[in-house]
Amino acid sequence: MIPGPSEPEPEVLAELSLPILPHYGAAWMSAYKETTEMLQKVFGTKNEVIIVPIPGQLAVEMAAVNLVAKGEEAFVCVNGLFSNSIIEAINAIGGKAVAIQSNLGTGPTLDQVKSALDGAKDLSGKSIFVVQNETSTGAAVNPGEIFRYCKKKGMFTVLDAISAIGGMELKTDEWDVDFSIGYSSKALGGVNGADPVAISKDVWDRALLRKGKIHSTFLDLNSWREAIDVDSSWGHPHPTSMPTSLIMALRKAVSMALEEGLEKRYRRHAQAAKELRGGLEALGLEIFTDPKYYSNTVSVAKVEAAWDLELRNRLVKDYNIMIAGGLGTLKGQVVRVGHMGRSARHENIEMTLAALGSVLKQVR
Domain of 273? Predict the structure, then answer.
């Protein structure tokens, strides 16, 4: 019951036991293409989707190295540890990250973004990064209003939807997202190591203009473009080898999400979130997140540092249930409970609340 990785469905795990496909050839090309086409439906986009064999944080860095030139400003809406890590990624490649700060437990507003951008000289070609669902605080945002405003200014828009995709509404095209970052092993219920990304034509064009100036080879979208355009003819639409079993597991997870129905799946996650937060409050725990920003895939509640660690350790030892602790400045102050994919079901929520109730009586 942590905010990722989530427990895959048995059918997804079964894919890992099948014979391994080589990462090229007709059979692989067909499976890869089918997976990316299904992912377009989950992303809510007609943009091209690629699957990169990296963790989610490197997908964020992929956006940064392709969109942010050395010495160039890039704007980041910061409302927690993971959005703050984007600042670090941009600065590490020589960009100049500008933080648009929100209080922990909340999210960025259009007014905050407008205020930050008003002081900038020329916004055309610059980028803005938003985390849709900040798992360090349990705060979720709808970025559509912000991104549509930024696109009118000629900016590139980057959305970290890592802990939202598959469990919360994602409208890449409607929200004007240029670079939309998904994830396999959170609400989609796949296995970590195969990261789907939806990329607009504007981003591909931007990368081409910067060819030879991008400080990476593997993350350079020009390498991926060449492989897609040239090497697809022999079934190798990527510039590297691929963890084919992980992608086949992702393929199964995405097909199960579509079979369930995305709207139905989103309702299931919303109901699980509501049930869990109600149960936490009934146990005397205060929800950390501002109600206007409640997430459907992770809930965060306040705890006392004196019994935080013992609470989590006893849950694992006595009930084999794992929840997460606080991160960064919230370490020892909160617990984070994931309800993603398979775990976003009544029986899991009920069992977790019952175990929490029992352990809280012992540690408080």
Answer: 262-363
